[in-house]
Amino acid sequence: MPASAAWARPEDLVESLSSLDNTARLKALRDVKNQIIGNKTKKLSYIKLGAVPRVVEILASDTEIPLLVQSAAAVGSFACGIDAGVKAVLDSGVLPHLLKMLQNGDNKVVEACARSLKMIFHSPLAPKSDMFEGHRMELILELLNNGSENVAEVAASVLARCCETLEHQQALADAGGLRSLVSLLAGSVKKQEAALDALAALTKHNQQLSAILIMMDQGAALSLIIRLIRDKSPRMRLLACMCLAHIGKACPAGYGQEDEVRINMLGILMKLLDEPGQVGEDAPGVLADLVTNNEELQKIAQKENAVEKLADILHRDTLPAKQLEGVLLALAELCSRLEESRRQLLDSQVEAPIVAAFGHPCEGVKVAACSCVKSLSRSVKNLRTALTGERLVIPLLQLLSDPSSAVQVQAIAAVGNIVLDFTLQKTVVMQSSGIDQLVHFAQSMDPILRRNAVLALKNLLYMADSVVKGRVVNELTVSTLCELIRDSEEDVQEQAISLVRNLAYGDPDCIDYVFAHGDLLLQAVEQQLSVSLRPEISMQALYVINNVAAGNERHKDAVMDLVAPHKALSNTSGFLLNRYLQDMINPQLRVVAVWCIINLTYPGGTGTSSRVTRLKNAGVESLLQKMADDPCLDVKDRVKTALEHFSTAVTLVATTSGQ
Amino acid sequence: MRVCVIYPKSSSKKVITKEEWEKKLSEVKIRKEDMNKLVMNFLVTEGYVEAAEKFQMESGTQPDIDLGTITDRMAVRKAVQCGQVEDAIEKVNDLNPEILDTNPQLFFHLQQQRLIELIRSGQVEEALEFAQEELAPRGEENHAFLEELERTVALLAFEDTANCPVGELLDISQRQKTASELNAAILTSQSHEKDPKLPSLLKMLIWAQNQLDEKASYPRINDLVNATLEEPVT
Amino acid sequence: MQRGGRGDGDDEMEEEEAPTHLNTSTCGHFLVITTDKLCAKYTGEGLHGNDVGVIQGNQAAPCHRLLYYFEITVKDRGLKGYIGIGFTDEHFRNSRQPGWEPNSYGYHGDDGKLYHGQGKGHVFGPTFTTGDTVGAGINYASQEIFFTKNGKMVGATFKDVKTALYPTIGLHSPNEKVEVNFGQRQFVYDVEALVQEERERRHRAVENVHLPPSASHSIVRAYLLHYGYHDTLAAFDAASGGSFPPVVCTPHEDGNNGTLDDDSFALDQRKVLRRLARDGDVDSVFAKLREWYPQQLQQEHDSNIIFLLHCQKFIELVKSGMLEGAVTYARTELAHFFGASLDQDLHLQDCLALLAYERPQESPMAYLLHFGQREVVADAVNAFVLATNPSLPASGKSPQSGLEKLLRQLTACHVEKRLLNGGQGEVFSLHRILQGGKDGGW
């Protein structure tokens, strides 16, 4: 066997990397490089043998061109395709050396180093921000004008991979990157592709740069990109679509003809889904970006059978993480609003692949799978019929304890929808450690986690039986709940109060949970009702009051004490509900406030007459009489009922006193 | 989606005699420089670098790619054609290390070709070792690779490899196939079309003749190499 | 005779005029048209079958392309929504709906039916009304008329009318109003995607054709032989060395020699002559020809080859700045060619015009000074030698390379097919395909 017989043992080769003899060193370097390119197993074994620091050392201290080229190439290959390799080269401190060599007089060295950077920065492990320190970015930008085809192309790819945050984008734009990249669009296929890739990175979520690109050269740059969505090369088509999807998403004002172009892109991306390799892997993610928040486009996609097509991909044997994530995200977007799409997706038997995605090692995939379930579970019908059983719910609940908070946030959001309506799911959550975890997250420092957890608990309590309610109150505790009601975040307050609303809905047993700790909870709610300026919060608080007022005599009296305390009787403005009865901006608030009165004055109770008297004294009746012609029909009807309650009570009082 | 409403039957075929057709042929304007370009494109894409250089001198035709890049590409191709796959791998890695690092299928085919060459030269033990160490891990990464690997290893089971069911792997055409795949990958990495235009035009000729057959009877060219005009079928 | 450079532009490639607005001069009586000529409103009463408001585009649909397409948007369906869109011929009666009369096609909004040449429609697609955008197109490749509604293909019908067709709209109830888009704005229907689909379909069909192995290789080799590109041939053969099968040459059954032998005829002589011509050494070319082909040269005394060589000699003199010598040469050797043929006269005029410019290399005749002109002469010499091959049938034609024959056949097939389609559809241009670069052109 010519080659491997000639090759020394790996250990010896690694040793030779540090040989003092230049020729031996070069030979060892080439051998290692040629063994690892394309071969993950070899990469790992050489990393274990400690080859990486030795290779980097050559780059750092040698001056001979072939040695520099070969070591840069080897570094690039170690970093290509495996995280362990990226970590190893970064740990060896290779970045400054590679960057320094970009100024080398030999273009081969420059190309090899730039390529190496491209490989390294392809990985999420790479420290992107490091590239924006000092004058590093200028160095790369200069390479865009390099006479060599390859160098310019590779430099643009490096930019595409480095540019992640708003600051990065701005720094690049300030250094003139946008213009240089646009001029690359006139070059060879590879240059064009790399430039589109970088432009897509620059415009992602960046309204300002998107707008500049739209206007550049009287729209000539944009027109060129639009033309490229029909290029012969599928990768070009994909990258042009990606670029336009980013621009369209970031720039709400958009550009002329945008709707037509988007529809065209939809068709093009749908076809790209079938492309082999990288293009097919990246296409679903771009599709997801394209249809985000665009219901019209989602409808068109649905009619073009996008859901079925994506679901088919989901059923394939092994999908690369990127593709799986993209497909799930695209499905999540497509099903976020359209019931028909949800139905189609469920008809495609995707539960198993989605559940499998819950256990995927990659964070993005798990997040996407949760988003998908979240979208599907927005349909109550689906909750009842399709998203059943422990197979889905238990693994989803397990994600609540995922180390990644991004996963947790989406998982809780999905759990929140899942537990909404279906008793079986509720039971499953109960039986697993679901409640513990939700309670745990409800006390998280992360406001989004906290909100989603409270929301999930709220949904869990929706129409739940007394056992579920009891457990949640026990585990969460009244004092924590009170804290959540007074949370610093209004979103959390709203969810917490509406949790109490669900808790207080139902028979008196349920309402009793509200009084598990005296009237502490009710007081907390009342407090928010008095201070909050957000109608959403007031609304939820009024619902709590109303639900409690619908309970037994004791509950009603507790509400009376809260809303119309004896001591404040002299002052009508002191009556809490009056404010909402008179809220002319939000008829919904008036409706609920009147409902509260109706429940408090409901005929037949032992304390009814006394409550009616107290309310009368608080000026409620006269206020209601003024509302007899309320512009809101709903309010008007309820006021009528309430006034009837008042007169019935008077009659009853009259009858009793007459005896 | 498409609704087609009215479709009448096509009318009878037009007959064009050889004389009429030859007159039409003589009216066609073909530029010498276009033919030269076509030939140059063939030479360049297929990697005949010296011929391309000579042709540039002899005909004044400019190549559409830097001739310097062909030499390296051809050295790679030639190495595969001669069965020196490791040599080809080293060369392509020098040209652009990304090609094999980001193209697992091509990389696998090269490794497979190496295995084939080992088997061809009767190095059974080395072949087995190579298959286990180098190819098996690739098979684990991709199911399609595994099947190809199994097919290749099956060669070892036959004493008379030339007549075994998987014997075609040992054929020269297998080397050509691998060499072409590698050549195309290098061309693509250089932003160049991976196929020459001439074969496409030849295919287009056959296709266009078939299309015209439906509507007319005329002298076809069936023998592309000698370009002989047949008598029209009537 | 082959001429390079001037006047050899791609004549058939001229951009055709396409409709840009409505033709108000032939418009019917029952319409008002906005000043931009892109909006039409019905003003008649729609009482009978002959008060339709019909208007055509200002040009016929261009036909030297794969497809033509236009759209209307219904601004107001009017009383009854009797709106028709389609194509009509030049002589269409401007008071009838498109589709009702012969040589016309129409898709009608009120019933969604397709009309073609008669008052009775075929069930076709959905109806259309206010707010809808409806399109009509001609697919020359498939010879179909197609219609779209709101960006979706509705359907197609066979196009049996071979004469020029005009984009047409017809309105026929009070207050109907439509706006037409001749491509000044992006279309709602993705017509580009249809073009691409059509091309891809053809591309796939072409790629599926099976070729005999190494056909290209043999054709290239024969080409190099034919033109006597000797060094290229040698390098080509050396590089192919064994890894390709040798050129396939099937001897003809009647005993004639194959093309290969024709192509290799007098290769050694042709190689020398080509090199001399390439170097601009016209004198040596003459000398060698006299030495090797005295008889044939005598017969050809006033012929094209001699003419071209003399012209080239003159050009070489101009090139080297020997203007006086050039003038003398022209008087002695060129003058008597005048009046022999139109082609020769034109070429001669171009050559002599070089004298009129202080900087001939910047003049319109500069092409004569390029290497390409030497190549023209070298090819003529080569053809001359090949024609001396005694085994060649005495047809009087200059022999062609196999490649040239194939390309002629290819072009002729396309031309003929277009002809059979009434001269409609994309014009095939080999030149454009070769220029097309990465887009692949046609």
From TrEMBL, chain A:
Location in the cell: Cytoplasm; Nucleus
One Pfam short name: Arm
InterPro entries per record: ARM-like, ARM-type_fold, Armadillo, ARMC8/Vid28
Keyword set includes Translocase: no
Species, as recorded: Sphagnum troendelagicum
Keywords noted in UniProt: Cytoplasm, Nucleus, Repeat
Protein name: Armadillo repeat-containing protein 8
Top-level lineage group: Eukaryota
Automatic annotation (TrEMBL), chain B:
Top-level taxon: Eukaryota
Domain CTLH as annotated: residue spans: 69-126
Protein name per the record: CTLH domain-containing protein
Organism: Sphagnum troendelagicum
TrEMBL record, chain C:
Name used for this protein in its record: Ran-binding protein 10
Region feature (Disordered): 1-21
Alphabetical list of Pfam families matching this protein: CTLH, SPRY
Family annotation (InterPro entries): B30.2/SPRY (IPR001870), B30.2/SPRY_sf (IPR043136), ConA-like_dom_sf (IPR013320), CRA_dom (IPR013144), CTLH/CRA (IPR024964), CTLH_C (IPR006595), Gid1/RanBPM/SPLA_SPRY (IPR044736), LisH (IPR006594)
Domain B30.2/SPRY: 1-187
SUPFAM superfamilies hit by this protein: Concanavalin A-like lectins/glucanases
Residue span(s) of domain CTLH: 266-325
